[in-house]
Known about the structure:
Layout: E1 5-13, E2 19-29, E3 36-46, E4 57-62, E5 72-79, H1 81-112
Parallel strand pairs: 3-5
Antiparallel strand pairs: 1-2, 1-4, 2-3, 4-5
Amino acid sequence: MPPMSFNGIVTKVGFMKKTATVTVSRWVVHNLTGKRIERSRKFLVHDELNQLRQEDLVTIRNCRPISAMKRFTLERILKSPEAEREAARALRAGETSKATSSIIREASELKQS
């Protein structure tokens, strides 16, 4: 089989160890009406490090059969909305803790004066 790689969205993760379900969509033109139709297919993908999360945008590549259904492996993560959200929360929490610590410091300085 020639090497194939697809971009898709992780739709299901965490139900099987080292496995995620990735949905790959493509657009085709209907022969009779000429309208564009979205076709999609789900692939089981081997994720060795269990790093994928729901709604990640990933690139997958075909490989030797890993199990009865798994024929693809994770090549790279293009975008991870959940990881970006967690990073933003951590940044906001750090700013909040800095602000509260500065307020507490100022209050203790006022008490000492």
